[in-house]
């Protein structure tokens, strides 16, 4: 358990639980070379990048920024922490005890109608939900193991039955894809190889997102129901979802409410009704003003895309692995100049991990002052010292590129916390 002050603040704020004393660490054995307590607990923090198993869309959240802050080595800008949907606002009940109470709510205080996402109860006709920041439709990940599960992790009458991942304490959760444990979900960003049979047409493109729903009657055929992919737009105070050409207006106060929409089924021409579960405005529209919603491969922060590993560009539409790029095929933006760096690769580009230049990709953009990024696509929008509060006897000093600020002692001050007036010290006096 990490109990440092900024971590405690972020955990309490994220879950809405003032009783939480810190951030829980992984309890499972991860690798022989890596202790479980080197990571955040997967069951509690889900898609956070510093959990012990990878997610399709890992999130660098305010929680990890808080840990860096508490280390004393960094002063992070928390506004760049991506939104972590997993468990947000679920209260103390999400954190304590077993997930048994989520899997079997009728035997607990939660009740059958309580939303259990990201956990699921069983594989049935309604066992689909939105996952990965609404970028995909997930299915309930339950499998049978060759041996009995440890006693604390038995949630079903069959003792070998449990969730597909030990990292979440074998809790059944909604997953987009879990390898050989069929069935699998589908991405909203690209069309699946086999289109599902649906009464309402889904839209698969970078701007599409997943929305939960409830159908009236047996409206779905051949596949399980519960969620589907649609485009949307944001107004000043509403999320507007396009369902088969009909608009669903989800205003601020309707988050979690079911809103009916009627549309025409493509296959029959008959009208069909569905109840869309309205998302929260914060989930979809808080950071809506990014190009192409970052193509589904990044997080929108302050109007700029922060691309997931393997993608770059102002809209995260370029993949490092597409091809080996050179200055002949690259345009450095905003006055940047390109230099061929002689990268080489076999069958595609080579990802160097350098997000400020091409590196092993075969090119490098030297950005003009005030710009940064692989293609110089990101503008440094503010003075880094404006948001930095320096203590007494210190002032903010900017880096050479003007992108980072840090507090340093003013002239004539030094020592621990810059409290020593050096002029007095040289004269054998001290400040009282």
Protein model, in words:
It is a single chain. With 432 residues, the chain is mainly beta. 9% of the residues lie in helices and 22% in strands. The protein is built from 6 helices and 25 strands. The strands form 10 sheets. Strands 1, 2, 5 and 6 form a 4-stranded antiparallel sheet that branches. It has a 4-stranded antiparallel sheet with strand order 8-7-13-12, with no helix packed on it. A hairpin with a 5-residue loop joins β16 and β17. The longest helix is centred in the first third of the chain and has 11 residues. It is globular and about 80 Å long. The two termini are 40 Å apart. GO terms for molecular function: metal ion binding; metalloendopeptidase activity. This is Leishmanolysin-like peptidase. Its EC number is 3.4.24.-. One of its GO terms (cellular component) is membrane. Its cofactor is Zn(2+).
Please outline what is shown here.
The chain is built from six helices and 25 strands. The protein has 432 residues and is mostly beta strands. The chain is globular and about 80 Å long.
Poorly predicted ranges (pLDDT <50, ≥5 residues)?
Answer: 107-114, 217-224, 343-360
- The separation of the N and C termini measures 40 Å
Arithmetic mean pLDDT: 75
Biggest β-sheet description: 4 strands, antiparallel
From the helix content, strand content and strand pairing, which structural class follows? mainly beta
List keywords for this structure.
single chain, 432 residues, mainly beta, four-stranded antiparallel β-sheet, 6 helices, globular
Annotate the secondary structure layout:
Layout: H1 5-15, H2 42-45, H3 62-70, H4 100-103, E1 128-131, E2 136-140, E3 142-144, E4 161-163, E5 174-175, E6 186-187, E7 209-215, E8 227-230, E9 232-234, E10 238-243, E11 246-251, E12 258-264, E13 271-277, H5 281-285, E14 298-301, E15 304-307, E16 311-312, E17 318-319, E18 337-340, E19 363-366, E20 371-372, E21 378-379, E22 394-398, E23 405-409, E24 413-414, E25 420-421, H6 422-426
Helix pairs in contact: 1-3
């Amino acid at each position: 358990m990490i109990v440092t002050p900024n971590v405690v603040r972020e955990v309490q704020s994220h879950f809405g639980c003032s009783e939480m004393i810190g951030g829980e660490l992984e309890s499972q054995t991860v690798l022989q070379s890596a202790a479980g307590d080197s990571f955040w607990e997967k069951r509690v923090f889900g898609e956070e990048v510093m959990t012990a198993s990878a997610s399709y869309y890992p999130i660098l959240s305010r929680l990890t920024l808080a840990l860096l802050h508490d280390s004393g080595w960094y002063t992070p800008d928390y506004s760049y922490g991506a939104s972590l949907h997993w468990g947000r606002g679920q209260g103390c009940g999400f954190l304590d005890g077993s997930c048994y109470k989520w899997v079997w709510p009728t035997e607990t205080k939660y009740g059958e109608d309580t939303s259990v996402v990201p956990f699921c109860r069983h594989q049935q006709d309604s066992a689909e939900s939105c996952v990965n920041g609404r970028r995909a439709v997930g299915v309930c990940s339950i499998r049978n193991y060759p041996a009995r599960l440890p006693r604390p992790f038995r949630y079903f009458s069959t003792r070998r039955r449990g969730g597909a991942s030990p990292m979440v304490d074998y809790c059944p959760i909604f997953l987009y894809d879990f390898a050989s444990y069929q069935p699998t979900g589908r991405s909203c960003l690209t069309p699946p190889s086999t289109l599902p049979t649906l009464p309402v047409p889904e839209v698969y493109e970078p701007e599409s997102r997943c929305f939960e729903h409830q159908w009236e009657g047996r409206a779905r055929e051949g596949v399980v129901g519960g969620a589907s992919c649609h485009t949307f737009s944001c107004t000043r105070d509403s999320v507007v979802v396009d369902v088969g050409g009909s608009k669903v207006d989800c205003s601020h106060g309707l988050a979690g409410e079911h809103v009916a929409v009627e549309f025409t089924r493509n296959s029959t021409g008959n009208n069909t009704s569905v109840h869309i579960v309205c998302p929260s405005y914060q989930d979809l529209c808080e950071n809506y003003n990014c190009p192409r919603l970052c193509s589904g491969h990044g997080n929108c922060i302050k109007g700029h895309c922060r691309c997931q590993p393997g993608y770059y560009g102002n809209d995260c539409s370029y993949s490092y692995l597409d091809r080996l790029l050179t200055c002949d095929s690259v345009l450095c933006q905003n006055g940047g100049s390109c230099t061929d760096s002689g990268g080489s690769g076999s069958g595609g580009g080579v990802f160097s991990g350098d997000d400020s230049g091409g590196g092993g990709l075969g090119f490098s953009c030297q950005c003009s002052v005030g710009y940064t990024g692989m293609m110089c696509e990101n503008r440094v929008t503010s003075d880094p010292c404006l948001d930095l509060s320096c203590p007494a006897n210190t002032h903010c000093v900017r880096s050479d590129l003007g992108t980072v600020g840090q507090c340093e002692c003013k002239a004539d001050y030094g020592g621990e916390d810059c409290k020593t007036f050096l002029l007095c010290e040289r004269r054998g006096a001290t400040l009282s």
